[in-house]
Amino acid sequence: MTAVATSELPLASRQDGSYPRPQLMRGAWADLDGTWSFRHDDADTGLADGWPAGLPDPREIAVPFPPESTASGIGEPGFHPVVWYARTITADDLAAAGRGDRAPVVLLHFGAVDYRARVWIDGHLVGEHEGGHTPFTFDVTALVADGADHLLVVRAEDDPHDLTQPRGKQDWRADPHAIWYRRTTGIWQTVWLEAVPETSIDHLRWLPAGTTAVDLTVRLRGRPAAGARLRVALRFDERDEDLGTVEVDVPPSATGVDVRVPIARQRNGQAEHELTWSPEHPRLVDATVSLLDADGHPVDAVSSYLGVRTVGVDRGAFLLNGRPYDVRSVLSQGYWPDSHLAAPSRAALRREVELIKELGFTACRIHQKIEDPRLLYWADRLGLLVWGEAPGAYEFSPTAVQRLTREWMDAVERDASHPSIVTWVPFNESWGIQHVADDPAQQAYARALTDLTRALDPTRPVVCNDGWEQQNTDIITVHDYEGDGAVLAWTYADAAARDTLLSGMGPAGRRILLDGAEYRGQPIMLTEFGGIAYQPGTPRADGWGYTAAADADDWLARITALYDAVRASAFLAGSCYTQLTDTLQETNGLLTAAREPKAPIERIRRAVRGTP
Fold first, then answer.
1. In this predicted model, what pLDDT tens digit does every residue of 465-513 receive, in sequence order?
2. Rounded to two decimals, what is the model's pTM?
3. What is the largest CA-CA distance in the chain?
4. β-bridge mates for residue 470, sequence order
5. Among 10, 45, 122, 193, who pairs with 30 as Cys (CB 3.0-4.6 Å)?
6. Distance in angstroms (rounded) separating the CA atoms of residues 49 and 45
């Protein structure tokens, strides 16, 4: 077999944002997005009628846009619990994926399919997956070995009335109401092909070991031969500086390897800030990870990147790289009017991050959604803190517990390497644990999933239940839509106000801390506030917010007053404004649904930051 040439690998820290798995890159891949065949299957007869072998009388759909959206070309938002897709995999697709002597194994990747998927090639079942926000992969080598055209068929099942499914803000009613939006069914992230060696690097996880080293976990596909080694090389391309190379033995038939990679230049503590990552200085370190045979030849090699940074909490402060950092965040629903949970284009993911920063924020809380990893790449590269949050189920039951736990574990595994993600949020406002205030079983579940998150990733703070009714939380978070800046200033003024807040009922009539939970000096953040509706131009009849402004000047004055109250607080360590954009009937965004600022962006930034 021909050795892999590491010189052919892309520079991961300077990619264009199209690669669907930005922290594990190879030189070739085949994008299967585009025009597919499509059928609704409301009567759920497709299996019995033989649709895995081909769809009768299909329509056309633009993948990866969900069929409820206009961008898909279908645009039918009603209840359609079962949908089917079909597409031909061609010889050109396999060539684009890089299939050849050194990469004979063909992998079929799905970024996300909501909620349950079955996949066939030429009528043969390839596999199944459950979980609407997380990726999955099938080895299809044996089914495409002859180099001919092959029919790929996907069945997606997404019951709009199944409350045990982690669904986030997807409405269970026919039409959007209150704070819920139109559904996203089926494929909504990129489908792609990749060719890899028989033994290959399957997954990387980078976690910081302080600011002087990084811990890498490598998961392998296939079994390495005797004498195999793993080589990890780090480079800071911004300064044309090699940061070091480490090689370790790979035990025969091992499924993975753990290695600590020291960064020698970071031993100089007086200069360590020259490499650390932050929103102000989003420095990325490039990595090449190679699997070597006994003769030292690369069997497989991938490019990746990481950020050298630490996060934590201490003495009422959120810490970034060991220093207090004011988290100035905005709530991002990750929803577009024409494409729903799917971004309308790959460029839109970059622009979303740019807009958040232009508005004056240092962070965003991605709300009730596991976001496309390409947006996280732009957060890494451009410098934006991100809170990763689980999409909630609406029911408490053994099935709901199992489903959310499994999908959340997959999400943490997928995203743990991103330096931009600084906090995990497994629950929001008691969704799926509606009676956690007095139900011991729901309390145990909330504590357990919070602790499980820490076990999966001990390097980041975890918020137990964002907003209220918290237990073993690393950050105490409060949701308060008080519209009067003077009242907000009084509520969060000083230590006495803090003690009143934590010992009584919170702003929404919910206890902030449950019985048995203690205030131990954790940072306290106002993680939802604002929500002021303002509709320039022709208003929606159903548009709403938590309060409303008469015009642009009134709107900006209200935002400024609320932020003045936050800035005046003696104990708030951060905040999150609701919200980034208008979203359907919610007209409380800083931007319209089309991502246009509702006032000159410098005036909004001044209100948010308190300075020009």
1. 999 999 999 999 999 999 999 999 999 999 999 999 999 999 999 999 9
2. 0.97
3. 74
4. 513
5. 193
6. 6
